[in-house]
Amino acid sequence: MKTIAALQATVTATSLDFEPSAAELDAIELEMPLIRAEVELLDAQIMTIDRPTNELDVRRVRRAHNRVLAARRDLSNRTITVQPGGAA
What we know:
The protein is 60% helix and 0% strand. It has 88 residues and is mostly helical.
């Protein structure tokens, strides 16, 4: 019977040691209001998992959802300028 074994070098990606580029960090910074709004929505939804929801919980989730929608709208309406190097 043959043993099947993977070589460590072929399984592990070698590019995992690199830091994000400046363009990637700028893109994350640009999307940060949306990320924060989505985390707030998730927090509001998690709070309602293990207990019966009351009107305050419903309002909290609805407001968080509206903040996510507003952040998505603002992000999609933002004008992206293209730098000479080709990065947005």
